[in-house]
C-alpha cells in the first residue's frame, strides 16, 4: 500500500510541472489578449500570399 | 445603391470608382489602392468592408510634424537603441480580424518596419522599426493613410498596471486551483468508508503533504484578503474581507493543529477550494473594458505638442511648456489647447466636444477663445492668455480631481451586511465557547474554531462579483459600459437625475431642417444643393443632405468665405448661401441659437433654412421611465426650447438655462450636499466638472473609444432610448443579490447548527462549503441572464 505514497509524490511532481508551465505562460503575456491568437492562426504564411496574390485580386 | 468596398457605407449617387469597384470617397479608394499595390488585398477577403472611414479630411499634412521633435518622440517610444525602436500605439479603429491581419503585415507596406503585433483586447499595436529607415512621424502618417489613426497620448502607464494586476490574479487562481486539486487527491481516502484503516504512515504523510500544499495558498493566494481586512480594521470599519480572513485563518490553524497533533486530517481541501472560488469571483468582478478609459484627465484630450511661432519660425513644443504670451499656430482640424486671443486669421471654431453644439462659432481678431474647440478652416494665430493647467475648463476639471471620490461615501451593501454578520458570528462563537468550556475546554476551542470556519462568508462574498459582474457584461453587450461593479450599487441608490441638453437630449450631428421664405423651384433646389456639396461645413452638409438628391452640376467660380458663407455660379445664376450678414448685409435679428442658412439667387434674398437641434428618439419614454426620480435639465443654452422641454419634464422649475460649466458643477454640488444621490448625464467637456461631482456620471458618446470626460459609465448615443431600462434593470438586480444572500445564510444556519454542537466533520465541511459557493454563483449568474433575456437585452455576442 505504501507504494501509493510514492505514486502520489510523483503525481504531485507532474502537476507542479504543469503549474510552472501555467505560471510561465501567464508571465509571458499569453493571457493578456485572448482574441488575436485565435484569429492569427488562420492567417496564411507570407510565402503563400505572394504566389496566389493574382488569384486573390480577382476574387475580391 | 452600391456599398463602399473599403468601409461598407453607401456610396451615394456618384461613387468613386477604382479598379471597377465602388468607393464612397477618395480616402477609401486611396487605402484600397495602397493595399492592392502592395498585394495586401486579402484584407478585404477576411471580412466584408473591414475599413473605417475617416470623418474628416484624409491628408495627415503637418498634423504629426511635432513627432520630429526628439524630446516628444523619445517619450512616446517604448524602447530605442542601435537604430531599432519600438512603439506601442492605441488605435481605436481596430475592430475585426482583418485589422489584426493588416496591422501585422505592416512590414509589407514599408521595409523599415520589422515587426508589428496587435493586442486586440486593448486595441493596441506594438511596432518595432528601424528608425534610420522610417521615422516615428512617417510611421504614424503611414498608419493614418490606411485609416488606422493612433490616439497619441502619454498616459499608457495606467493600462499597464491594470494588466499586471490581472496577471497576478490569474497566477493566484492557478496556484489555488493546483493546491485544491492535489489536496483533494490526498484527502480522498479519508472520505471513504473504512478510511480509518489507512495506516498511520500514510495518514501522516498525507497530512504533511496537504499542509505543504496549503502553505502557498495561505501565504500567496489569500494575501489580498488579509491586506484588505487589515486596512479596513485600521480605518475602524468592517468590510467583507474581515470575516473572510478570520474564517480562512481559523480554518488553517485548526487544520494545522489537527495534522501535527495527529488528531485528524484537517480541512485543507476546503481551504484551498474556497480560495479558488473566491479568487475566481474577484477576477470576474475586476474584468473591465480594457480598451475603454473612464479616468482620463484633460491631458489626454489636448494634443501633446503645439506649434509655437518664435521670431517667425515654427517650432514644436510640448504642451506644458507653453507660456503666457506665446504665439501659437492652430491649423485646420487642430484643437485649441489653451485659453487665448485671436491674433490673425478667420476662426471658425467647432466646440462640439465642449458644448455638444456642432455648428462652428466664428471668431475675429481680438476675440477671446476658450481652450477645447477645434479650428475648422485656414490656420489661425493665437496668443496664449493662460497656460494649459490654468485654462478655464481644465481648471474646473482639476479642482475636482483633488477632492475625494464622491462615490465612496456610499456604503456598499456587502459591507453593511458583513458588519452585522461579523458581530453576530463572533457573538455566537463566544457563547458556544463559554457553554462548552464548562464541559471540556479542548472541545470548546474546537467548537469556537468550527463556528468561525463554517460561518466564513465566502458565498456572501461571491454574490456581488457574479451578480454585478454578469450584469456589467450584459450592459456592455448592449452599449452601456460601466467602470466597475461598485457603480451598479450606487446607481441603485440614486434618486435624482440631471440631464445636459445639447448633445445629450439632442442629437449632436443631425438637425431638423425647415425652409422659411418663398417656395423654391426644383431647379433652384438643384442649384443650392450643387453649391452646398462643395463645402464641408456642417451646415452646408445638412442643407445638401436635406434637399432632394439630383445629378450634380458643375459649379463655376466657387468661393468659400470662412465664417460667412459660400457662393458659386450655376447655369449663369449666382447662388449664395450663408449667414444673414453675408447674404443680406445685416446681423440676424432673431435668436442666435437657431441656426439659419440664408439663400440668395442672383443677389435676391429668397429666404432661409431654419436648422434646429432634433431630440433623441425615445426621449419622452426615458424621462418618464425615471419613475420616482427628481428630474432636472441643465443647459448652457438659452431658453428657446423651454416650452418643448416643459412638456417632457412636466415642471417648469426643473429646467435651468444659461448655466456655465461652473454653475453646473455647483448645482450638482448643492444637490449632493442636500442629501440627494445624483445621476448626471452629459456629453461634453463643459459637463466634466458636474460629471465628477455627481454620484454617478454618465457620458453619452457617439464613439466610445474616443475621448470622453472622466465618468462612471459611458453610454453609446444610439442606446439613449434604453437608459431607463438599464437603470431599472440594475435596481432589479439588487433583489437577486438579496436572494443570494438568503441562500447563503441558509447554508450558514445549517452549518452553524452542526458546528455549535461540535459535530463539524471534515467531510461535512468539504461538501457544504463548495456546495454553498457553487449554488450561489450559479443562482446569481443565471438569474441575471434570465432577467436580461426577459427585458429584451442581448446576453451574448
What layout of secondary structure does this protein have?
The complex is a heterodimer of chains A (60) and B (797).
Chain A: H1 3-27, H2 36-40, H3 46-59
Chain B: E1 16-18, E2 21-23, H1 26-37, H2 42-46, H3 70-76, E3 77-81, E4 84-90, H4 97-104, H5 106-109, E5 113-119, E6 124-130, H6 136-145, H7 157-191, H8 200-221, H9 223-234, H10 241-261, H11 268-286, H12 298-301, E7 305-310, E8 313-318, E9 327-330, E10 340-344, E11 347-350, H13 352-355, E12 361-363, E13 368-369, E14 374-375, E15 380-384, H14 392-402, H15 413-437, H16 441-454, H17 458-477, E16 480-482, H18 485-493, E17 496-500, E18 506-517, H19 522-532, H20 538-546, E19 556-561, E20 565-570, E21 573-578, H21 580-584, E22 595-601, E23 604-615, H22 619-625, E24 630-634, H23 642-649, E25 655-656, H24 661-673, E26 678-682, H25 688-693, E27 696-701, E28 713-716, H26 723-756, H27 762-790
Parallel strand pairs in B: 17-24, 17-26, 24-25, 26-27, 27-28
Antiparallel strand pairs in B: 1-2, 3-4, 4-6, 5-6, 7-8, 7-9, 9-15, 10-13, 10-15, 11-12, 11-14, 16-28, 18-23, 19-20, 20-21, 21-22, 22-23
Helix pairs in contact in B: 7-8, 7-11, 8-10, 8-11, 9-10, 10-16, 11-17, 11-27, 15-16, 16-26, 17-18, 17-26, 17-27, 18-26, 19-20, 22-26, 26-27
Describe this structure in words.
The complex is a heterodimer of chains A (60) and B (797). Chain A is mainly alpha-helical and 60 residues long. Helix content of chain A is 73%, strand content 0%. The radius of gyration of chain A is 23 Å and the shape is elongated. The termini of chain A are far apart. Among the domains of chain B are: 1-58, no CATH class; 65-152, 2-Layer Sandwich (Alpha-Beta Plaits), CATH 3.30.70.100; 301-396, Calcium-transporting ATPase, cytoplasmic transduction domain A, CATH 2.70.150; 479-506 and 616-723, HAD superfamily/HAD-like (Rossmann fold); 507-614, Calcium-transporting ATPase, cytoplasmic domain N. In chain B, helix 22 (619-625) runs parallel beside helix 26 (723-756).
